[in-house]
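Journal club side-thread
Mid-discussion, someone asked how the predicted structure for our own chain would compare to the paper's figures. Pasting it here so we can look after the session.
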Amino acid sequence: MSAFQKAGVRIPEDIAIVGFSNWFMSSVISPKLTTIDQPGFLMGKTAFKQLFKEIKSRKKNKPIEYKKIELATELINRESTK
């Protein structure tokens, strides 16, 4: 965003910018960054549970059960988009 601003590109009038992860700096920089909030702790917890299930399955010589897991995210609109 700094490079765009130095080049005279206006945010969000000329370009819209969206970040990912809702890092705390997103709300203190100027302009405040629109971002997608992801549940980082829950992602780690879910990944660990799946890994643990896979380890247990391998010990019992069972096939690995693959599955798709979707976790809720949220778009947080701030100043970097219209």
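Post-session note: Residues 2-76 form one domain.
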